[in-house]
Amino acid sequence: MFDSLLLPLAGTAVIIGLLGYLAWLLWQLRAQQRRQAAATEQLAISNQEQHEHRRKSMEMIALATIDGDCELSEACIRVKHLLDYYPGLAADPVYRVIGEMYAEIRQFATHEARAALTLKARAAEDRARYQIEQRFGNDFMACMRALHRQMLELEGSRFDMEAALGPRVTSSGAAA
Hints:
Elements: H1 2-66, H2 72-83, H3 87-90, H4 96-105, H5 111-116, H6 119-153, H7 161-165
Helix pairs in contact: 1-2, 1-6, 2-4, 4-6
């Protein structure tokens, strides 16, 4: 009689154990999903904060350039680096001049490297930079006015990664 009860009891114990393990796995899965949702939300908040900081920075740089408080080459370098986060925006023909001007001024020494230059070398770079600023000046100022207007329009906007990156190109070369 003991043997006839042992097998159903063992089976019941195994089933209860498996159900307990299944419940524990489901609990772990839900906990992981909650952590992932919280991490996704935190990433979205962080992206939004960074977006607003970049937007405000571009607005202020454009305004300072328009007001004559920021040199064109400095504005170009700063805005170019900020636009790198928004390839879709950077591809807009209105901002073409930023990339063109940046291509010509990016080789100039900055910060410590500039301080390490001799006075003669620094003066030569300044003259070359001034010539570039003169050549691009009108187009660059028009670009800064357009950028300032667009950044004001984007105030309070939600960050959208897909829109920021622009259209994706597939392996066939077509936009996705």
